[in-house]
Write a structure and sequence with these properties.
mainly alpha, two-stranded antiparallel sheet, 4 helices, 69% helix, 10% strand, elongated
Length: 191
C-alpha cells in the first residue's frame, strides 16, 4: 500500500506540475449571469412575484476576459519551479518505496529459507537424539550405563524436541511474513 500511495502521489504531482506550466499561456474566460432583484415591502401594494421575477427586475450579464501573462513578478515561474521540485521529490519517494518493498521481500525470502534450513536441522536433531536415547536406554537396561548418562541423553532428546517445535512455529510464522511482504496474504492463510 505504501508503494501504491507513492505511485499515485507521483502521478498527482506530475499533473500539478503540468497545470503550473499552463499558467505561462494566455487564459480566456467567458461567462453569462442571469438574475433578478425581487423585493417586497410590507404594507404597500407590490407588484406580483411573476412580474418582478420574469419581466421587471431581471438582469442579464455576459462578458469575456483575456489574460496574457507578461510580467507578474516571477510568480508563475516560482510556482512552476516549486511544482517541479515537488514532482521530483515524489519520484524519489516512489523509487525509495520500490527499493524498500524489494528489500522487504528479499529479507522475508532469506529469513524464510533460513527458517526452512533450521527446521530441517531440528528435524534431523530430533531423529539423532531419539536414536541416541534409544541406544542409551538399551545400554542402561543391560547395565552397561548409569542413570546420569541416561538423564543427560534424555535431556538432550527433550531439548531437541523443543527446538523442533520452536522451528516448526518459526517456519509457519516466516511463511506468513513472506506472504505479507509479497502482498499475497489472505485471512485464510493465517493459522
Amino acid at each position: 500500500s505504501d508503494l501504491k500511495q507513492a505511485v499515485y502521489a507521483e502521478k498527482a504531482l506530475r499533473h500539478s506540475f503540468s497545470a503550473a506550466k499552463g499558467r505561462y499561456y494566455p487564459n480566456i474566460f467567458a461567462g453569462v449571469n442571469y438574475g433578478t432583484r425581487y423585493n417586497y415591502v410590507q404594507g404597500q401594494s407590490n407588484r406580483s412575484f411573476d412580474n418582478q421575477f420574469y419581466s421587471d427586475n431581471t438582469r442579464l450579464q455576459y462578458g469575456a476576459t483575456l489574460t496574457i501573462p507578461i510580467w507578474n513578478a516571477w510568480q508563475y515561474k516560482s510556482q512552476a519551479a516549486l511544482a517541479r521540485v515537488n514532482y521530483k521529490n515524489a519520484t524519489i519517494r516512489r523509487e525509495n518505496a520500490e527499493v524498500l518493498v524489494k528489500s522487504d521481500v528479499q529479507r522475508a525470502y532469506e529469513t524464510f529459507n533460513g527458517a526452512k534450513k533450521k527446521h530441517k536441522a531440528a528435524q534431523s536433531g530430533v531423529r539423532a537424539a531419539e536414536l541416541a536415547y534409544k541406544t542409551e536406554k538399551e545400554r542402561y537396561d543391560l547395565g552397561a550405563s548409569n542413570i546420569v548418562q541416561l538423564a543427560t541423553v534424555n535431556a538432550a532428546y527433550v531439548r531437541a524436541q523443543g527446538d523442533f517445535a520452536r522451528s516448526t512455529f518459526n517456519l509457519m510464522f516466516q511463511r506468513v511474513l513472506m506472504a505479507y511482504a509479497e502482498g499475497t496474504l489472505k485471512f485464510e492463510d493465517i493459522p
